Batch of 3 targets.
Target 1
Amino acid sequence: MSMLPAPSLSNKELVNDDVDLMSETTPTTSPVAAGNRQSGSDSPAIAEPPREKLTKKAITADLPTWCPGCGDFAVLAAFYKVIEKRQLEHEKIVTLAGIGCSSRFPYFVNGHGAHYIHGRAVPLASGISLARPDLHVFLFGGDGDGFSIGGNHLDHGARKNINMTYFIMDNFVYGLTKKQTSPTSPIGFKQDRPHGRNRSAGESDEKIDRRRGDLHRAHSRRKVNHMISDRARVRSSGLQRHRMLERMRDFPRRVRSGQSEEGRQLRSIQEKKWDNTPEDELRHDVTDELAAHKLASLPFPGVFGVFYETDRPSKNALEKKWIETTREKTGGASDLELLKKTFDRMK
Amino acid sequence: MNETPVVTKGDGATAAATSTPVSERADLRPENIRDAVIRLAGNSQDGIQTAGAFLARLAGRSDHDVMTYMTIPATISGGPSIFQVRIGSGEVLSAGDEADFLVAFYQHSYQDHLDFLREGGVLLYDSDNVEPNLDDKRFVYVGVPITGLTVEALGGTAKDKGKNIFVLGLIAKIFNLDDDKLKKLISEKFAGKDQSIVNTALMAFQAGYAYPVGNVLTKHYRFEHFPKTSGRAQITMDGNQALAYGLIAAGVRYGAGYPITPWSSIMETLRRELPKYGGIFVQAEDELGAVSLALGFSYSGYLAVTGSAGPGISLKAEAIGWASMAEIPLIVCNIQRGGPSTGLPTNVEQSDLHQAIFGSHGDSPRVVLAAASVEDCFYIAIEAARIARKYSTPVFILSDTSLATRIEAFDEPDLSKLMVDPKPDLTPREGGFKPYDLERITQHIPPGTRILDGKYPLIGGLEHDEMGHPTGSPKLHMAMTAKRRNKLRKLAEEIPVPEVFGDQEGDTLLVGWGSTYGPIHDAVKMGREHGEKIGAIHLRHVHPLPNGLEKIFANFERVVTVEMNDQGLYGFGQLATILRARYCEPKIQSVTKTDGLTFRVKEILQGVFPGKFVSVRGYSPNRPVSGNGEQDVDVARAESIEQGVG
């Protein structure tokens, strides 16, 4: 039998590799397949009561420990809205994070989840996503976690295109360890601890991630609704990266006054509507990688919205296909028969 | 085995061959033997591993015991290389101290390995490439123009490719091996490739088999046949294969790794095999990604494996600390090689024991098991999975280069009794679940499991309360640290006390772990034959140690660990250091060595009984200068502590 667990996996999620999570769907109510009980398990089989509507209250856990005014609050609020709107099955939601202020996120969501080590949450989430296609894997982190110590994993996670939704809350600074420079700190960013001199904000990361994974940028204050709007792609296929530009409460005034967003109208990306109008010529084609690069290279704070989308098959889909073709060749033999056969060849 | 020539049966006919120069006699007289060590010495691209592996497979198929030993140069391509096969009609535990039969492809093969040939042994050399010193009457010389005859037999553009198979044919004739079975093995090996390749290989084999070896040798050998009593068929594989298939039998369906010698072949096997079982193995972007993927698999409800050699394990260390803290089951294979750093990537060492036990940060208890033989690689994987699941903990499996690459035949495991069903339990649970309940051993609920009171567990690396929420409470940190440690004390209670091999009481108890099992047991046999009161125990569970070892130690005057690692600053091998810390017992000593080669039986006895046993010849396969002599074999005596501490 196949070892891929697919308890109560709806056909839609399996077959359609490109489900729009934002559209309202009726939650699947099929109970966990009885076959998934481990033999000899002492856990009592209990009848499942009917489900209530999943509310913000049900998915709220510890009180967030972030500083007052932190942009992370807006992302948390937006996440609650997404969950309420989507009405996912509560137990299928998995929140994960590495280390950092924003990476405390899972503690504030009542659901299955894990708080992992610094920078390695993408591969952790990859393992969960690959083994359990029935789960919705949400990953949270900051600019240090995602672009610095975990930069390699972000790049390869995007290349492998593993199903997960990754929210990167970028406040241009290491907040938890008290304001050291991060890879996205602007040039000239100085503070009392190690003197920071780094690339300009927004210059490094989109380029790192130029390929493959979807990319979406929102601003925590004004554009966070973008994330939950109908146009945002919080989908179930491939790795989607949402970078949230945030302003840390104590962000140095000099930087703020010099190049901040204060008082400036934030610009949204106008996506192509494919309506053959002259205006559409100027709009952004989200499948155009080169155009996405150009947009991502705009000076701080740049533009907001969807930069890039690709339909490249996810690793989940490729592995599933490989398992299916391999299983076909074995003629559906049992695990025992398979290993016996292998040993026969070694006699 | 003992110190006398390994060919023991017969009417002293072995001696007849001794110092008999090449003769003209055409009739080969049969001679029964129980045991033979055949060493093939050439270059790494000559395919001597392939030829040696055929011999090992054939021996397994013919109910013989077999063990192989190989060295590979740590170069990208080329360099001297050996493959040694020991075939026996009885129990074969070690690859042999001396060769009965040396096949030298090149002058350097002859020069480097002649010292390894026992007196009276047969040197089979390629007379196109080797000019031996025929005046040395200690050996029997058989010159065959291997290169020329191979080219002649195969023709075409293959040049001398195929001389390995030609030699296989020669050996088959000399040792009276079953040529039909060998041909079948050759056909199977190359099946799936072009038919012309199979034909070429068979032609080379036939040419070697048909060579009139009677012109140069007086007899052929025939292995005595003792039917196995177990009634189970034998399977032949190397240690890495055994470990990989053991993991599959243990219900491990997911894993991740990164290439590194000598771990890689486990990764390759699992990458190929797991999809058949519905599983996935991912080659990750780096070691940190690999261990994280594996932890993701494990967290999702499927016990997973990752692995590496020492340097890669160092990179995984932080995540393994997380697994201890979060109490996530995980299997970590460390196929040890010579270290530190890149060290000796293709040589053997047991120098990662302390890394396995302590290598992370903070107090991060974990379990460490060590495989004793190729067969044990299979069963240790099943034991590791059992412990990881039951105690929700990371478990190390220590193997090493010698186990990874050596081929042994062993009884086919009774799979119908061993196979584990790996499905996670996603049954909905009543509420009140505490992931870190102080009253019991943690068993996580996999994600996707509905919890009816709507309170879901969060697991993490921050110190936590019973619900998994972060805490800085001193009392809770003490309680949780004790919880993580005490579950392994619980495990120690159920580990069987190892049986003592040899004398149950007496002068010396040898204590081993890992791949030294064979040489240690042979050393006990040889020592007892020479009147020593000596016994041995072998530890499969190295951390935690089984309870009750002190009772065994009490029966011996001294306890000597035998380890392939350095005696360290304080004069004791890594296991000896642990045992001394645990038992505060000054009679615990160690015999250690760091030449990157497996222990020879004599080296052990030389180390344990200084001056009593014949000195070891300064032999080293491909590095004749890197002394493997007695000065390398250190007994950690009390005086070395004095010297060390000063």
Target 2
Amino acid sequence: MTVDAPVQIRDVSHRYAGRPALDGMSWDATAGQITCVLGPNGAGKTTVIEMAEGLRRPQQGDIKVLGVDPWRAPAAHRARVGVMLQDGGLPGSVRPLRLLAHLASLYTVDDRADLVDTLGIEEFGHTATRRLSGGQRQRLALAAALVGRPEVVFLDEPSAGLDPHSRLDVWDLVRSARDRGCAVVVTTHSFEEAERLADRVVVVAAGKVVADGTVSAVCAGNSADGDGTLESAYFALTRTARTA
Amino acid sequence: MTDAAAPAARIRAQAGFESRTLLTNGEQLLVSLVLPALALIGLAVSSAPHLGAGRRIDLAVPGVLALAVVSTAFTGQAIATGFDRRYGVLRLLGTTPLGRSGLLFAKAIAVLAIVAAQTVVLAILGAIFGWHPDAGGIVIGVVLLLLGSWVWVSLALALAGVLRAEATLAVANLIWVLLAAFGGLLVPTDRLPGGLGSVVRLLPSGALGDGMRAALTGHDTSLVGPVLVLLVWGAIGSALVARFFRWSD
């Protein structure tokens, strides 16, 4: 844990209808790093990320993003944080270029040209969002998250549904955000994505962190029964948490 | 470091975005403008239903303006908000510099802008059919339109914030049809059959319809009841939104 980490999750617990969703979860995301959060469905990934995005309030524990409680964050704080939701959050009747122009108007700096270019949005920029393919919608949602050059960005399954070329483009863009000092938090089910992107991996299961470190450290520490890959380490970790 | 645009600029941008989105949506345009315009033409060229004593067109146009408020502030807004909630648009915008309160402000401004535009169009159409509103009642009519917009937007958000998008679509359209026929919007509550009028008078539709007719025909003395009813429904709707509105499914 680092005191000055842009994203700090500290001993957060939360219950839904009496069932624990988060059980004392703690982890950080550092500036200039890609932190991949891995875990099975129901492990608490989405819940904790929504809390860090200010969409949900934790019942116990403390969350700070850029030093601010995201639930009470002012507009100036939200301008420094980008969010890509799993369900996109894209209005169906609006055209991508108009949507990005509108989102850019909420900030003092309009930097959408680079995003449009890198993600190839121009080619479908005048098509209503509801008519886009899954991959095109995914690219638009990523561009929407990166408008305003955020210092922290939360990306939920950023390459899901993309063809291999588009996936590489998305990963390049995520890396370039990291390289300019952004703290990037990626939730994913893809081991390949985590292995290719992550500077750090946080594995969660049953509402707790079961491993936290570099990909090689997580693999090395949990490779007794496996082949030394992230996939085998993940299954060893999450199986243990399930049966505990 | 990138900063948020000024609050007024953010809300203005979102209000413009919402207004354009609503006005370029065919179904929304149908509900907000085409159907009220057809209602106006229908009432102007026919002699049924009976609207009471006085020039028919002077009684018809205020009712159509009230119907248009319900179309835009309630039906249109409920459906738009329901699907925005379903697709995560409300959640995403809540994480931007706009925030949740900015989004609500912008929605209110967008509704008022569309109500203003449809009022002008319908008033011109009414004038073509010979409508002569009472000059002294125009300001009161505008106040009633504002009050009605507040009431119906709050009820729209209360509906869209609780029900699923498809259910909101069905219920909002059904309510529009029922109110257009029996809600005291087009037909004065004292012309409704049986004891229906005394019940409908206590609904925001009846209050808005009767209030608009009273104001724009110069019968200002009968406005207290409708205004009180609208204030009560506005308070109820706002309380329901504050208590039950959910930003995501």
Target 3
Amino acid sequence: MTSADGIGQQVFTFDDYGALLDLVHNSLIVGAALGLVGGLAGVFVILRDLPFAVHGISELSFAGASAALLFGMNVVAGSVIGSLVAAGVIGVLGAKARHRNSVIGILMPFGLGLGVLFLALYKGRAANKFGLLTGQIVAVDAPQTAVLLSMSAVVLVALVVMWRPLVFASTDPEVARTRGVPVRGLSLAFMLVLGLSIALSVQVVGALLVLTLVVTPAAAAARVTASPVLLPVLSVVLAVVSMEGGILLALGSDIPISPYVTTLSFTLYGICAAIGAVRRRNWGRTAARTDAGSADTAREVTAAAS
Amino acid sequence: MPEQADERGTAARGASSAVEPVIRAEKAALAYGARTVWQDLELEVGAGEFLAVLGPNGSGKTSFMKALLGRVPLSSGRLSVLGRPPGRAGRRLGYIPQQSTLAGQAALRARDLVRLGIDGHRFGLGLPNRSAGRRVDEILAAVGAAEYADVPLDLLSGGEQQRVRVGQALAADPRLLLCDEPLLSLDLRHQRAVTELVDSRRRSHGTAVVFVTHEINPVLGMADRVLYLARGRHRVGTPDEVLTSQSLSELYGTQVDVLRVRGRVVVVGAPDEPSEPHRPAPQPHAAHPGARGEQRSTRRGTPRGKQGART
């Protein structure tokens, strides 16, 4: 019992909460931006069936970050370079879904191996090493915040510009091509944008758990709505709630932020999946006739999420 | 036939393209390596014309479609689509693919698919707006899909999906409609619904139609002309000219009989191209007992003709 209490205290501690809140001020801002970017990019990860690619890119991002750590360079820059290289390779070599998974399966262990090598050689603080894999919360300082926010802005602008044709190319590539949509170019462009969003997420949730931000919220949203407006909105709401909720819960303890974020995100997915299972059963003609049907459900879910 | 185009269709063609046929092929040939799929193809398709493309599997029907779309280059000859090289034919081109080419279906509703047909190619967010929404509603109503406008596509039946597909293609206000085996795996009722939608469009708007199908009967009353591909050769003409025992026997290089049974065309003894999987076509109308037996007995000199009542 006592040990259980001890663990409980370790996991949830809220002493001096106000003072701590100041410390993570930057993290909360970055977290919100991350939720926005991850939630939106996640929509296309789901539409294009790329979760495995997300995982592969994040391992390469980790390798880049740990190389930067070893050589005393900027960790964010290293992580971005690793991400973009991986995303580019996957985008070019793995244009066909069939090839893509093997390309990722080959890249990923190589990246992870490199990362382990660089970390083994690194003699600095152990927390830095662990943080790259499982996330760090207070690590975001002011200049870093600026960098991460401007990267988020780049991703956002890119997504806004290519949103509609990218939806077309992702869901209906055959017809999109006949309508003059540059399907191949968009595919590559999206991989690079995805690489950038992953590099961002690695900074806060860590390389191993990027999926929780870039896949889970969008997948959860797709369970309850097929509306092209509600899906991204709900996905962003779920991602932001997981992210900020995770930061706030993790605040008092010395446990990394990631278990909080992943648990929240997973729980929200469970709720959405349950709602979706019920909804899909009577999504037939009668339910579909009322336009309000989909909006109502989304409101319910949003309410449940927040 | 051009005379079937009404004023609107003719006007839409504009002055420059009025003389230009919608599709023109001159000595067109397509080969993959040493294998010639078809050659010496001379063809002009005018506004409002319905061309059915027939032939056994592997005879180059799909390649013909790909050539029109500019996905495969000709090995020789010339081909123009809407007055331009294939692949650069512009946006007034509607395309109805085979069923189930959709990815990530769960996250798209019928109305979203049609909306993509209107402006999916434009960059930007593409937020919903009232005029586009009205247009989508009109189109969905016109193809009889209004009832399931808000249902995710993966919950629709194949026939329902194809109705939405027709709507998507019409949303582009096409001058040419390319239909790539759109009837595959549809039941007879939906086959008729889809073909009638396509047919009424070309009659009302003078849209030219190229309809690739392995079964002639669903489009028999509609096709002005037939392009029949087989064995690296082809025949072009009206259904009555092409679908005769003599013409198809010449084309296949073996005795083929074309029977007309109750307004339907039955091709007997057409040898399969190699590697064709046996795919029995749904033909409830030909359901008079003994039909198959008779066909077998009339078949002569077919190397491996398992192809029964179908074209």
